[in-house]
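Note to self: keep these together.
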Amino acid sequence: MLVNDPFRLDQYDYELPPELIAQHPLDDRSSSRLMVMDRISGRIRHCFFHQIVDFLEPDDCLVLNDSKVFPARIKGKKPTGGRIELFLLHFPKESAPGKAKARALYRSSKPPRENIRIICSGSLEITVDEVLPGGQAEVTLTYFGDLHTVLRGSGTVPLPPYIRRNQEPEDVDRYQTTYASRIGSVAAPTAGLHFTEKLLRDAERKGITLARITLHVGYGTFAPVRSSDIRRHTIHAEWASVPESAVEAVNRARRNGGRIVAVGTTTVRSLETSANASGAVRPYEGECDLYIIPGYSFRAVDNIITNFHLPRSSLLLLVSAFAGKNRILSAYRQAAASGYRFYSYGDAMLIT
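Structure:
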């Protein structure tokens, strides 16, 4: 008997040949393919991302997440000479000149002892303050100069686990949107990776308003949904900000009959968190733990630009809530059959 239960996790599986998981970015950001799907009719068109402005209208508001990825993966040596790798779960918070505190995941042959000092490359040294359950630790970073500059010299960009290679020089810039400005993410808001500065200028020339929000993407973005009933899953909270400038732009577009086009699932969650029942958004700053699954009523967002997401992921559940599970899975099957590239460095989708 066929089962079509939108709350069963196993309903969000699909077959994907491994060779369709993009391992490198394309030379030109905007040369990615673009699947355009009408969520009402199910009609699909196959285009390229450099055509995205053709699908936007004057008075639309394009909302971008301006969070910037920092080098969160750091390798070092313990006093014994043993190797250890730390993954900072958030951008460290400065506690004094030349000192900052963070929580991190650690990976080593043996758990580190409290109060040991880890020697890293460059001018960075890390002290383990407290060892926590789940392979985590509270740490203090000691450094000279600007913290972000130090991390760029001592750490690497934490590429997603499905990119099965080490960081290469191109990743420093390409695993970052062209408009990233606020440091704090451990993973890129990848729907925005396709935009060039020229595309954004073209959008503005057409009368499309650009608005910027911030959601710092956390390690939880890589966490799979494990509950067989998706309603029992919870997602990690992430820090988000919807500033007054974005509120004014979004609400003005709504009043003028324009559409709110969210670039990425992080932008969707930020706008929906800040929206009232009528769809107007309000300034917001704080934790965002909105978990969107089928049955959710969208209030603020009209269109979504997004990448193709992993099976059984909260991101796949979100786009399924927006466009319908069967439509999304059908589109994904069509994308795979047509050779689209999937995941962070892959191709894009516009859901209207």
